[in-house]
Model the fold of this input.
Amino acid sequence: MSRLGNLYQSVIGKKAIVAVTGSIMIGFLLLHGWGNLKVFSGATAAGVPEVDVYADFLRTMGVPILPYGSALWIIRIVVLVSLILHVICVVQLARHNRKARPVHYKHARNFEEATLPARAMIYTGSIVVLFLGFHLAQFTVGGVGSAPFVQGDVYGNLYGAFQHPVYVALYVGVMAVIGIHLYHGAWSLFQTLGWDNPDRNKSLRMLSVALGVGIFLAFSAIPISFFSGEMNKPSLQHADTSSRSNK
Amino acid sequence: MELDAKIPEAPIEDMWNTHKEHMRLVGPRNRPHYKVIVVGTGLAGASAASSMAAMGYHVESFCFQDSPRRAHSIAAQGGINASKDYRNDGDSTYRLFYDTQKGGDYRSREANVWRLAELSTDIIDQAVAQGVPFAREYGGMLANRSFGGVLVERTFYCRGETGQQLLLGACSALANQIHAGGVIMHTRKEMLDVVIIEGRARGIVTRDLVTGALESHAADAVVLASGGYSNVYYLSTNAKGCNVTATWRAHKRGAGFANPCYNQIHPTCIPVSGEYQSKLTLMSESLRNDGRIWVPRQASDKRSPSDIPDAERYYYLEERYPRFGNLVPRDVASRNAKEVCDDGLGVGPSGLGVYLDFKDAIQDKGDDVIGSRYENLFEMYEKITGESPWNTPMRIFPAPHYTMGGLWVDYNLMSNLPGLFAVGEANFSDHGANRLGASSMMQCLADGYFIIPLTIGDYLSRYEYGDVDTSHPAFADAEREAKGRLDRMLSIQGSETVESLHRELGRVMWDHCGIARNAEGLKEAITKIPEIRDRFWNNLRITGSGAQLNQTLEHAGRLADFLEFSELMCRDALARNESAGCHFREEHQTKEGEAKRDDQNFSHVSVWEHQGTDNEPLMHKEPLSFEALPLAQRNYKT
Amino acid sequence: MNFTLRIWRQTDANTDGDLETYKVQDIEPTCSFLEMMDILNERLTERNVEPVAFDSDCREGICGMCSMVINGKPHGPKDGTTTCQLYMRHFEDGDEITIEPWRSAAFPVTRDLIVDRSAFDRIMQAGGYVTVHSGPKPEPNAIPIEPSIAEEALDAACCIGCGACVAACPNGAAMLYTSAKVSHLGLLPQGQPERFERVQKMVHQMEAEGFGSCRNYAECEAACPKEISIKFIGRMNRDFLKSTLILPNNPRGKMDSQ
Done:
């Protein structure tokens, strides 16, 4: 543990923590995005949307070795801890950096290499954190947003929410922000962990562009599709959702 | 003044070893009690300070820059010689000794030169062990290139920044010792005087350049590694801050100044572009390996160089010196450049320049080879002039670069004042009347890494340690004198600036004591210099006070010493009524216009003793003997 | 050419400073930037105004002493040059030029445009060396070094310690400097025995001096007069993380009993 403590004590170590937790969250996003795309997979023979099946899988994963739902909680905790560490380290580093450069130049600064996404990391990151609260309230806990929330009925919940242009705009907008955050963040983590070098740099840069754009496209396809009417209304014969079948 | 060179009694090839074996030593437990001051952190100073501290001596190191790494050794470009014979071309200690002695036109002390050649290989070993990234061949072996004045390839290099890499090596050793507590480092402190007590050097007085505070530092010995005095010309390849103050102050306290007139004018520098110019930039001499030097055959030919056909180009070095061609020693190359320009063949807007052309080399060897050798030098030239040597020949002209003269030292590198040592460019020892390329760093590091750490022990062991501290009245006196000088300069409040007076001195020196000298000109300079000095002391303007960071005051102090020193330089040049190496007296030349020595009357080191500001200095002679290498007329033609 | 200069003037570390405006006239385009400053200072002296204090020494781009932020960019608008290698032909006649000192908490202003960069020296003192005494050494060709390795080490070692990387970094970080120094020795066989101890000591000293952290902006690389690559930062990070997380914490511990 003292090694991790030493790591945390040092500025480079904190950066590494930011990089590692960032990559955990990227991994989560990829998983999340892959699952979400199942909304386009239609429904099973029983008429259950594939995405709901997937949602159920997340809870039954690991059973019977793990109790029902615990694997999902493990993932949630890992991601949450990553997020908290990511934010704490970033905030501490930002304060450290402000102290390191107390006086600013009088002449306006012309950045040469630092891209706008790189300089906006703290802002894009903050937007994502705020959004995350809302997102969880809307689709995990429920109670926020206009549509009635039904646990397990992922498809229905999505459909309900994305009939409203405000939510569609919000989600598409925030996905763009996440894409921008990842454009710098994904490349940056390789540099921070020392895996970047001139031979690989171009590929890593392309990878981070692909990741940023890919995440944006994958996630914003869903609200847009629901809103544009591309997607079917939720089926009425959904097995587990009694409230829906009453309608 | 007693001048005993203390040359060991032994055949020349055994001299250094015999001397080492018979030297007195200080035991490891006693070394921390002895305190040694080292002034300057260039190659000689940094290597001396770190080596002595590593042995256990208590060292205090001083530099006027903000970091030891900025000393001007950092700017040495081309390389460092060592007789490793990696190229299997017959190199040996003798051959390096021979080349250095011959290059110096037989005006150096044989014993010292031999030792230098002998230690040259150890320097490379030492530097590599420190992590100096010398150029390597494909197989991983150290690479070599050739350099002016020799017929073997023995120069080790790191691109065009060998000096920086060697100094970083020496400074890393210094940093190690600072961290370990062996060296106390004082940056931004300039030495203003040396303190002599009962005939021994016992400390220095410094000025803190940030606060202006004068401070005394006592020690058991003082080592000056303060570099050369080329800035007496105002324009030189030296850094702006390089100065003669440390050695001149030592001279005024009784140390002999040897051969001040020997100063090298480097042949490959970028020509002057205007009155405002503050320094001249050297282009590495290695350029002469592949570049061909020429001027138009026809005077004031204003055509662009590419329009001048080969037949109308005068490759004067190749024609005049078929064996060495463009690789003749520096003094010969410089003088020839001056001659062709005097004949009106010079190129560029000022007419003071010659072409250094890479067209043929690029054609023969290809872009890659030339690029790998000179790319950074080409870039540097283009940055300064806005012209690319890939497309058009460089223009070059000689500029003051290195001073072979310096404090007189014996075989132990100690001056005639016991306890006052001088190493590197600050002493006079190894280069005679002309220094060969890639040998200054060799000398600095030989002095610092291998010689002074031993010889200082031989001196220190003869005395009790720490028997003087700064409470001795001599320190207070020296501080008072230094303060008096500063106050006097500040109080003048005249109308002339330090820069303008320095430029004026530089012009006088360049005109009368430059590449070629004659009695008449030197006498004129000796009357002109006191006149400038008078104006300095009566009409100088310095703003601000002495109790602050005041760069004008720093410069003024250095100029005050140059104004006294320059006169000695001219007197020495006048007294040396012969031509030797870089000291070219127009009265003494062969029919072909080569330097003509007068071995009968001038086979000696001229050592000057200060006799007070108002009296003419007194010259002493250290006779030179030539046993290992008999005297011969220097000949680079056949 | 004529210029309007806005120059930071500050008496000493403890006094507040501000920009002052000066006009300089009749400057030749072939004049270097520092020579233009010399001319300004000479004219100020003639007018009995204290000249602007600025650092410079070699004036050929190798000593690393000159340090001016010109129009917001360390060492001015031209890439791969130090301030002393900048010429007035790189500016337009009539330009207004703002000149400020390096800005970083670790580089306090000493006077006008001069800052105290001794923090860099302390980073070097913490571990920027191969521990080796002067004296006889093994034959250097006994350890062949691949030329590409020697060249890469030299790419790092060509750092002139000017501090432009710190001045350019919005966080005042010294990562490029420290990583260049760490990598120079870390790449060479001679630097291997102390490689990981060195990176620990130098990074800790760097942090203790109050330099900021790296945000991978690469502004340092853009400002570096020697164009040193940020790849060395990645390299240093790797060595640092490896030695923090994997390698023995106290490699010298085993030597205590000897």
In short: The first helix of chain A runs from residue 2 to 9. The radius of gyration of chain A is 21 Å.
